[in-house]
Write a structure and sequence with these properties.
heterodimer, A: alpha/beta, four-stranded antiparallel β-sheet, 12 strands, B: mainly alpha, MetI-like fold, 71% helix
Chain lengths: 335, 304
């Protein structure tokens, strides 16, 4: 039986747009616009979408690095105790900060250049009650070895490491408090392909060893295919399709996902794929189009798409749950 | 195969490594980088000499900087009076030494204290943002837009001339610049991912901004401290001339230099203003060298 670790309900993150002499709020960037999502314990959930669709903001909102404007983020512990995180005081957040961690995209800005690795990793440990220095060194040393690096590296400075090594140190930082859920925010996008594979394998190994759950944010659907159990596709701050990763590739329901998948390069000369080229840019999240947010770029758009906003509906493909928000799906909806 | 000198060097390193006698120096990285910068080291040496000479002035000179000796007025430099004597027969060398105490104290002291205030406010407000930042920014603008001279006049007329009033005014008018510098650095640093990571651990604001972010913001501030030290020393000289700074009977570099306002002295008695002007220039230059050295050694983006 699948058990949730995190439940998102109608999460919205709006950033005010200010203008004029008096700095009045003239509008909002709707970075995340009403996301409902369950993350199950032990799974790898991919969150895909193009730049600016709100993937990273959603990831940060879970950790409250960005305060959600609206909605609930509920953490479910192993003992089934539910805690709503967004309404907690900053101080009360601490026990959950231990459980939820993040690995960042840019390995060059994710480590403090003025401190050694040990220097920048020891403060979180200190805060969560690892008081002796030897113990802190032991924890960090062990983790460094777990990511295939040498213990002694903890006394080096970030500029002495390569991008892949830095990213692994970023993973060590996320792991040092023994978390349950790690948000991997484009964790491998900045690395070159051979290192990407290495780091991905490492992530999978660590997941097995530590019973982790990943929310894997990426714009690269070729990575998610092999990695994720389920994939959520985001467009303009909303989830447009959510299903098992296999179904996303075989039984694509949403035209946007179709376009994304058709863009994955295939290393097969004989295989002719029909590339769906989307016209134009992502519409401005300040002023999203009426009706379906995707209709101005959708190759299949009909009249209904221009007026009515589709909701995320449940379908069934291959006997699995499959959510999509599109007016043009001709499968029977499951309640 | 012919061994080049580089090969030999490498062999030596290898040998030492094998003997495990190759110990990595336990000196801090910043210190060793600073010591590698020759100009900065020279600056530091001269800086130290000038400061020590001022501190131990009574040991270096037999004269009293305040004592008027009308029999030896306006004497040219000699073995008895290295820098000659001034219009009232006081030994200029002694006055330069004693003047250094006050001038350096005012210059360095005001620069460092205003930096401390500016950094303390700037780091916190820059990191936190929001209304704290807005208020701090407006306050600093008020202080920076206030004419220094009027502030000095005001304080002098209320409390009388004194060294500490002068310093207080320097700090009041000087912290704004430091604050803006620190704030600007913090604004860009707070978006760095390592700061986000620290926040995701829920570390306190103080730990994040003063311990983890401040070292990365320090290098432009170092340079600014040295520049404002020089500026404060010069401002002190100017204010002293107007009779608003340090009381004229206390020797400061500015007070000594002010005799050069007299065209007669400027033309005929070079020793009354020449040496002290040189000392001011050398000192300011040294402080700037040290500042450059500190900037390079503390700048984390220049490591390697």
């Amino acid at each position: 039986m699948k058990k949730e670790i995190l439940k998102l309900r109608d999460v919205k993150v709006y950033f005010p747009v200010k203008a004029g002499v008096f700095n009045r709020t003239v509008g909002h960037v709707m970075a995340v616009d009403g996301v409902d999502l369950d993350i199950y314990r032990g799974e790898v959930l991919g969150l895909a979408g193009e730049s600016g669709c709100g993937k990273t903001t959603l990831g940060k909102a879970i950790l409250r690095l960005v305060e959600p404007t609206n909605g609930e983020v509920t953490y479910v512990s192993k003992e089934d105790d539910e805690t709503e995180l967004t309404s907690l005081e900053k101080k009360d957040m601490d026990p959950f900060r231990k459980k939820l961690q993040i690995v960042f995209q840019d390995p060059h800005s994710s480590l403090n250049p003025s401190f050694t690795i040990f220097g920048s990793l020891q403060d979180p440990l200190k805060k969560f009650g690892v008081n002796s220095k030897e113990e802190r060194r032991k924890i960090i040393g062990d983790l460094l070895e777990a990511v295939n690096m040498r213990r002694e590296y903890m006394d080096r400075y970030p500029h002495e490491f390569s991008g892949g090594q830095r990213q692994r140190i970023g993973i060590v930082r996320a792991l040092c408090l023994d978390p349950e859920l790690i948000v991997c925010d484009e964790a491998v996008s900045a690395l070159d392909v051979s290192i990407q594979a290495q780091v991905l394998q490492l992530l999978m190994q660590l997941k097995k060893d530590n019973n982790l759950t990943y929310l894997f944010i990426t714009h690269d659907l070729s990575v998610t295919e092999y990695l994720c159990d389920r994939i959520a596709v985001m467009y303009l701050g909303r989830i447009v399709e959510l299903c098992d990763s296999e179904d996303l590739y075989k039984n694509t329901l949403h035209p946007y996902s179709e376009a994304l998948i058709s863009a994955i390069p295939v290393a097969d000369l004989d295989k002719k794929t029909k590339r769906i080229v989307l016209e134009g840019d992502v519409p401005s999240p300040v002023n999203p189009p009426k009706g379906c947010p995707f209709h101005p770029r959708c190759p299949k758009a009909k009249d209904i798409c221009k007026t009515e906003v589709p909701t995320l509906k449940k379908y069934s493909t291959n006997g699995n749950e499959h959510y999509a928000s599109c007016h043009l799906i001709d499968l029977p909806e499951i309640s | 195969m012919v061994k080049t000198s580089l090969d030999r060097k490498f062999d030596q390193i290898k040998k030492r490594e094998e003997e495990k006698s190759f110990s990595i120096k336990k000196r801090s990285r910043i210190v060793s980088k600073f010591l590698n910068n020759r100009l900065a080291v020279v600056g530091l040496i001269i800086f130290t000499i000038i400061i020590l000479a001022s501190l131990f002035a009574p040991l270096l000179s037999p004269y009293d900087p305040m004592r008027v000796d009308l029999r030896s007025m306006r004497q040219a430099p000699s073995f008895d009076h290295w820098f000659g004597t001034d219009s009232t027969g006081r030994d200029v060398f002694t006055r330069v030494l004693f003047g250094g105490r006050v001038s350096i104290f005012i210059g360095l002291g005001s620069a460092i204290l205003s930096a401390v205030v500016g950094i303390a406010v700037g780091c916190y407000a820059g990191y936190k943002g929001g209304w704290i930042d807005v208020i701090a920014l407006r306050i600093s603008e008020i202080f920076m837009s206030f004419p220094q001279i009027i502030l000095v006049l005001l304080l002098v007329s209320i409390t009388g001339q004194s060294l500490f009033n002068l310093m207080a005014i320097f700090i009041l008018t000087g912290w704004g610049g430091m604050y803006r510098l620190a704030r600007a650095r913090m604004l860009s640093l707070r978006e760095e991912e390592y700061v986000q990571a620290l926040r995701s651990f829920g570390l306190s604001t103080f730990t994040i901004c003063y311990k983890h972010m401040l070292p990365n913001a320090l290098s432009p501030i170092m340079v600014n401290i040295t520049l404002s030290t020089a500026m404060f020393i010069l401002t002190e000289a100017g204010l002293s001339f107007l009779g608003l700074g340090v009381p004229l009977n206390i020797p400061t570099w500015g007070n000594i230099l002010n005799v050069a306002q007299d065209i007669l002295i400027l033309q005929n008695y070079w020793w009354m203003w020449g040496p002290v002007g040189l000392v001011i220039s050398v000192f300011v230059l040294c402080v700037n060298f040290i500042g450059d050295g500190l900037r390079d050694s503390t700048d984390p983006s220049q490591q390697g």
